[in-house]
Amino acid sequence: MRKIDPRTKLLLLVVINVVMMTGKITGIFVPVRIVFALIPFFLMMRETWFRGSFIYFGLYLYVFLLERFTLQDIHPVLLIILLFTTGLLSRFLAGVMMAYYLMKTTTVSEFVTSMERMYVPKVIVIPFAVMFRFFPTLKEEWQDVKNAMKMRGIGLAGRNPLDVLEYVMVPILMSVSKIADELSAASMTKCLSVDGRRTHIAKIGFSFLDIILALCSAAGLFAHVFLGGVIGT
Amino acid sequence: MITFSNINFQYKNNKTDKGNLIDINLTIEEGELIVLTGESGCGKTTFTRLINGLAPNYYPGTVTGELLLDGENIIGKSVAELGKSVGSVFQNPRSQFFNVDTDSELAFAAENIAMDPSEIIRRMDIVTEELDLKELRGRSIFELSGGEKQRIACGSVAVMFPKVIVLDEPSSNLDAESIEKLKCVLGKWKQQGKTIIIAEHRLFFLKDLADRLIVMKGGRIANVFNREEMNDLSSSLKEMGIRPLEEPGLCIKRSDDGIRDFIRINRLKYSYDRKTQALSVEDMLLPGKQVVAIVGNNGAGKSTFLKCMCGIYKTKKDSLTQNGKRWKRKQRSKDCYLVFQDVNHQLFTESVLDELIIGMDGSLSEEEKKKKALEILERFGIKNLAGNHPMALSGGQKQRVAIASSVAAGRDIILMDEPTSGMDELNMMRLSQELKRLKKAGKTVYVVTHDYEFINECCDSVIKLD
Fold this sequence. Notes:
The complex is a heterodimer of chains A (233) and B (466). Chain A has helices at residues 6-22, 29-46, 50-70, 76-105, 108-117, 122-151, 161-189, 208-226. Chain A has 233 residues and is mainly alpha-helical. In chain B, 33% of the residues lie in helices and 23% in strands.
């Protein structure tokens, strides 16, 4: 199975967020939105994450249709509450799933390679690359600190929240800064530096599917800007 | 060839008047395998850092003297420049990977010096073959065990075909099987004529490979032993505070005082995801009021077992009984205290003293608590650190603080996960004394370890998890 180029994924991430967050939800934008919500669904299905993709798309359709068609004649207070939740989900969910897909399926080196193909300077690329590694690390650290607190009988309930913050943040920050410190030392011994050329073994490139996805994005953006998709036009 | 001539080094943050390395004069021949050892803080890590350039470039300090690599002075050369000919493997497998997947990590250094991609791939295949990394290719770093990570770390260094390789306590997080694999890797490298410098506490796995053993003390080279001299060393090493050269066999004196307390474990199962089972214990009897060692290879579920036992993990079906009575999870988390392998996560407070006091029995007065805490710190040789911030301590000191606070908490059952990893002889003996004292006080200690010397020193029984 050919991989999708990281640049295509980035483009999709941006376009999905723009259309979902700033767009109207009426007229032709009903099908436009559904098509854009389908893109992460389709990409996740391609990775055989069946469970996750169905849960995502089911939830999306539910909140969107609820927001668009059902919430018309009900009590204003209830409407506000419902609109708040459905509106939030229908605007953010697709973007979040796309970001998740991007993080999960792109290796650090593919990401760095594609950034460098776009002539993004290394000073910007390297911190982003480190972020890819940082999130799973943070998750591991958080688990460990939580376990340690539980074991020492430092519960979260019934304590001064500032103390709790200290008990959680101090070990996490210390541990993460130690990892960051050792990681930079290790990377330096592997010749990583900001100047100087790099080569890549990661194979990235556009395929037929990339072109289709890019065309989709372009069409969506076109509709959004010129057919009055932006709220307030 | 590496030549140290009159090297002195002092870290910038070292405010004492004593240097970290003093008057180092040494010539390391090409193809030699040098083992550096000595107590914690003796300067062996600093020694390796001078060779790969991390000191003084990354860890600032002042150097005098000359350090020649093949006739060229390398003091002042950048780390990245030195990285082309010197490979480095570090102690902590969690913090030496820039990438998230193993293939990218293997290629990383070579990519950084702009090597041709087809050449990188050729070399990766060679290294995969040589170091037997096939089943680790194309995996996520986060799903590998410590031993597997360390093998990838070795592989990623080997792809550069370096002439010199320095390793800083590479075995401290590894079990017996992984140490054996590390030994094979070192053997291959030695055969290829690479110059290898290893800083280590545990020496037994290096005995057949080492050409010279260098003992350091207080920043100086105290002794240099060659192969022949190493063979008749075993007795005098202990006096120097050095771990033995032979891996001791397990030898436990059966205590006759009869076992009265038991913890019975019945069908204890745990899995992290839906697919694989991390732990499954059908039926097991653990003696109480003893020091019990739990051994087994990486991946046997030893750490998981401890976490289930002290109630951190919720197990699916657990029926633990203590002397015939059901022992519920809530109760277990009150009775047990677990010292984690990575102690960074369990130090919360602002001073070492507070760290001990926070977990103590609430019925004591502040004065009593303080007095007791200081006594315990004294026994671990860290009383002088009582006012320091725990996070400002060295790794070994933190480890001792964490263990001391487990003693201070006064719970009936203390669980420890690899407490001696990276410990020198002196501190290992201190810990053994403490465990014997706990046993006398009627406490139960379960300790997961691969350290046979430590087991022989203080454990009453051994349980193997498979």
